[in-house]
Amino acid sequence: MTDAESGLTAASRLPPGQVVTRKWPVLHYGTTPRIDLARWRLTISGSVENPESLDFTQVESLSGAVVRCDIHCVTRWSRLDNTFEGVPFTAIVARARPHPDARFVTVHAEFGFTANLRLDDLDRPDVLLATRHDGAILTADHGWPLRLVVPHLYFWKSVKWVRGIEFGDVERPGFWERNGYHMRGDPWREERYG
Length: 194
Known about the structure:
There is one protein chain. The protein has helices at 3-6, 56-61, 89-96, 119-122, 175-178, and strands at 19-20, 42-46, 52-54, 65-72, 77-88, 104-109, 114-118, 128-133, 136-137, 147-149, 162-168. By secondary structure, it is an alpha+beta fold. It has one domain (40-189): Alpha-Beta Complex (Sulfite Oxidase, Chain A, domain 2). The strands form two sheets. Strands 1, 4, 5, 8, 9 and 10 form a six-stranded mixed sheet that branches. The radius of gyration is 16 Å and the shape is globular. It starts with a helix and ends in a 16-residue tail after the last helix.
């Protein structure tokens, strides 16, 4: 959606303290993993009726969602009008059938990275597991083969290289949260650091 279509100006789409960039900076801790799709799996586990392990072909078969959104990094840059394609997170919730006590999710990624999110922040129509960005397959530096996209939170919550989704009744801090970042990360409230 463009500014003209939404009636919003670019300035009104920027959370406090953010500046617009046209680039998509590459930020992560450590190296970019080398992933063998033949061995790659997405594991759905925890407090769910239907735990399972999906290969990449099975994940792609759930694709079909397109989300156009702005992204906001905790380091103060924002990139407007991104188009992501992939699996709606609502499809994962429908498959997993979380138990009533499952209010939190730990997202697992390569190298043991994790992020904590509330289930109500994930079970929304604009949240997806992306395989594509702006019409092209995600690059490895930006999270190929699967990246979580949670547009309404700071982008560190949009985990790269997703390998697992674990539903639970306890919110456990993820990698960045254990290292001083805020537990939720709402850019409109400047929830940068804990």
